[in-house]
């Protein structure tokens, strides 16, 4: 549990093992911890349906739904367009990347430099990349791998720099990294109404899965 990136009064409950179903006692402990910290609400990370059912039965309400898509890494990958320059995301890039993230997703869902750093350490191995053009960093991607799965954890492109191939190349670059890590499948999620992101992922060969992910919140005061 940590503070929500854009609102320190909201506790962010992060599920690090998506195969584990939280118990009522675990949720009660988390809620008690958030109350001791003075939080006015507790908000979850994205949950698979099994965990979501448990959390919603404990008084949480759905505040967002995410589509889940998968890419078979045994297939041939799309080619890079090469219209932007890709490079490693360095620690000093976190602040400008957080600005891009907030411009892309808004203050509620946007990440701070600290939360982007946390995302980079959320999986056993990770890759963080930036896309550059003549006017500096215009996008970034954070990917992770655990076992035989790869995860495109965060992708954002500066709104005024879209349609230059940055999103396309950042995703393809991430898939190449996952292949080198011997992952079998890549997963990504995005808002069910984020038509631009859904179109990008589908155009690259991702397919929609039947499960939707849920983000939920419970008011504490």
TrEMBL record:
Record's keyword terms, sorted: Acyltransferase, Transferase
Domain N-acetyltransferase: 84-221
UniProt GO MF annotations: acyltransferase activity, transferring groups other than amino-acyl groups
Gene3D superfamilies: 3.40.630.30
Pfam families from the UniProt entry: Acetyltransf_1 (PF00583)
Domain of life, source organism: Bacteria
InterPro entries: Acyl_CoA_acyltransferase, Bact_Acetyltransf, GNAT_dom
Protein name in the entry: Acetyltransferase (GNAT) family protein
Annotated organism of origin: Ilumatobacter fluminis
């Amino acid at each position: 549990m940590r503070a929500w990136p854009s609102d320190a009064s909201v506790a962010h409950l992060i599920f690090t093992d998506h195969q584990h179903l939280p118990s009522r006692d675990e949720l009660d402990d988390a809620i008690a911890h958030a109350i001791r910290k003075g939080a006015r609400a507790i908000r979850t990370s994205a949950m698979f349906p099994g965990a979501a059912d448990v959390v919603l039965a404990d008084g949480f309400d759905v505040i967002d739904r995410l589509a889940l898509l998968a890419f078979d890494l045994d297939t041939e990958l799309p080619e890079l367009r090469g219209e932007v320059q890709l490079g490693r995301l360095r620690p000093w890039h976190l602040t400008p990347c957080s600005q891009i993230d907030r411009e892309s997703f808004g203050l509620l869902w946007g990440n701070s430099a600290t939360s982007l750093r946390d995302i980079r350490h959320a999986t056993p191995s990770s890759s963080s990349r930036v896309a550059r053009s003549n006017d500096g960093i215009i996008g970034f991607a954070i990917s992770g791998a655990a076992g035989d799965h790869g995860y495109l954890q965060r992708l954002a492109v500066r709104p005024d720099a879209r349609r230059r191939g940055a999103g396309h190349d950042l995703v393809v670059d991430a898939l190449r990294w996952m292949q080198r890590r011997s992952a079998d499948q890549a997963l990504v999620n995005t808002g069910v109404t984020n038509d631009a992101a859904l179109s990008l992922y589908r155009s690259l060969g991702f397919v929609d899965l039947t499960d939707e992910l849920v983000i939920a919140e419970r008011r504490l005061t």
